Amino acid sequence: MKEPGVGEVKATEIGDLADRFLKACAAHNILAATAESCTGGLIIAAMTDIPGSSSMVDRGFVTYSNDAKQEMLGVSGATLDAYGAVSEQTALEMAAGALAHSRAGITLAVTGIAGPDGGSAEKPVGLVWFGLALSGKAAIAEKRIFENRGRDFIRRETVRHALQMGLRALSRET
């Protein structure tokens, strides 16, 4: 039997996080939804890889473009103009918009710069803003700057952090 490669170990770890997150959603009797930009649907894919996930997952919004953020989630054009797609304000509006446009009780939103291009001094490759909205509460945001170890690394770490953020939020609700 061959040893699992590094990518396989990471995928298993993310799968375990997704499973724990969905079990926490089930324990709170809520559905989950995502609003994803830089991950292109990787968070919802990790969740829907779990057998039985249909009873805890409502939907995933992949809003890669600014138009999609506005049309699907209701992100304000003024917010995008003033702060840009990769900002605290946009992440908050994405999370709140996913909550408003779904049957979910918790939403995870991500917007960032996965590279290899697109970074600047102000917004470097590896910058990701996370939004989380829980029904009945104000949305919250977190900022991370991941080491620029390539696009796949940044996207994988983004998925991991979003799921961990969701787990923390639900553990505080217990």
From TrEMBL:
<dbReference type="InterPro" id="IPR036653">
    <property type="entry name" value="CinA-like_C"/>
</dbReference>
<protein>
    <submittedName>
        <fullName>CinA family protein</fullName>
    </submittedName>
</protein>
<dbReference type="Pfam" id="PF02464">
    <property type="entry name" value="CinA"/>
</dbReference>
<dbReference type="InterPro" id="IPR008136">
    <property type="entry name" value="CinA_C"/>
</dbReference>
<feature type="domain" description="CinA C-terminal">
    <location>
        <begin position="17"/>
        <end position="166"/>
    </location>
</feature>
